[in-house]
Amino acid sequence: MQGFVKIKSGSYRNQEVKDEVFPLIKQFQLGSKGGYITVDGTGRFGKDKIRVTVATPTDYELVDVPTTVEATDPALDEQRMTEIAERFDILNDMTKAVLNGDIRAMIVAGPPGVGKSFGIEGELERANLFDQISGRRVKSEMIKGTASALGMYKALYKYSDENSVVVFDDCDSILLDDVCLNLLKGALDSGKKRRISWLADSHSLRNEGIPDQFDFKGGVIFITNLKFDQMKSQKTRDHLDAIQSRCHYLDLTLDTMHDKILRIKQIARTGELFADFDFDQLDQDLIIDFMTANQTRLREVSLRMAIKIAQLKKSFPLKWEALAKTTCMKAGA
């Protein structure tokens, strides 16, 4: 059985890690940049193998493997699910406000796999559909994955008109790049004019007819897995504080494994999660109970994982649990 470790003081990619428990992969090692331990960061960071920087072995301790799920108060769980639903309702309302031009920019922070992008993408598709039906140019786009500074400049120019919106989803590398951060700050500036400039020579911009400066009048939504207040680098935090002061910052506050389970239950109740599977209530409860009982052993606790397990249950109704333990759980768990 896999061991667990409680990190008292450490960091991962400039984010503080303090008093948090992770499945342990490899104990303390010294690298070129100092000490670290290797853990399964799926629950917090969405990656199953990460190196958490620690100064010395005294900054962490081995803890017992959790074998059972702690008992919870049903009334408190209901209250928490209501709070989670309200946060996502706010996310949808704020997205509409950005698309309407009433709000200039928004940052959405939360762990991977909880549906941050889903609601935003739906609102963009509806807005773009109206543009397409009316024969107008589509005014919004969701950009996913790594974005270079030059790519970001081009995207901001493309959607620089009023009521245009560009959404950066899972582009956390932007927050660790000084040039990208300065471009983002320019787009979010609170002044009447938001002038964005590219001072370096670029054949690419010339070939595409993009000027080396322009006024940005559009909106920006930035979706991130990182929590701004937990970034350890002071330099990065100064940049992020400047960005946060320029726009709305919505933290979905899904900070624990239990919160993620409750989010899955909340979406299941709406009928959206298992809509394609024709399950009765008992089938849905069995899947969620399985995820709850095995939450520390699953490769990730997310809406995506719930769908994966549902697919197994649909295809293999008599042995779906055995298959889920083989294909959806971490080796040795």
Describe it for me?
- The protein has 333 residues and is α/β, with parallel strands linked by helices.
- It has three domains: 4-63; 74-251, P-loop containing nucleotide triphosphate hydrolases (Rossmann fold, 3-Layer(aba) Sandwich), CATH 3.40.50.300; 257-327, no CATH class.
- 40% of the residues lie in helices and 22% in strands.
- It is built from eleven helices and 14 strands.
- Strands 6-5-4-1-7 form a five-stranded antiparallel sheet. A five-stranded parallel sheet has the order 9-10-13-8-14, with helices on one face. Strands 2-3 form a two-stranded antiparallel ribbon.
- α9 crosses α10.
- The longest helix has 26 residues, at 74-99.
- The radius of gyration is 22 Å and the shape is globular.
- The model has no long low-confidence stretch (mean pLDDT 88).
Outline:
The protein is of the alpha/beta class and about 325 residues long.
Uncertain ranges: none
CATH homologous superfamily label of the largest domain: P-loop containing nucleotide triphosphate hydrolases
Proportion in β-strands: 15-25%
CATH overall fold name of the largest domain: Rossmann fold
Shape annotation: globular
Specify the number of helices.
11
Largest sheet: 5 strands, antiparallel
Report, as a whole number of angstroms, the end-to-end distance.
6 Å
As a whole number of angstroms, the C-alpha radius of gyration is 22 Å
Order of helices and strands: EEEEEHEEHEHEHEHEHEEHEHHHH
CATH architecture of the largest domain: 3-Layer(aba) Sandwich
Number of domains: 3
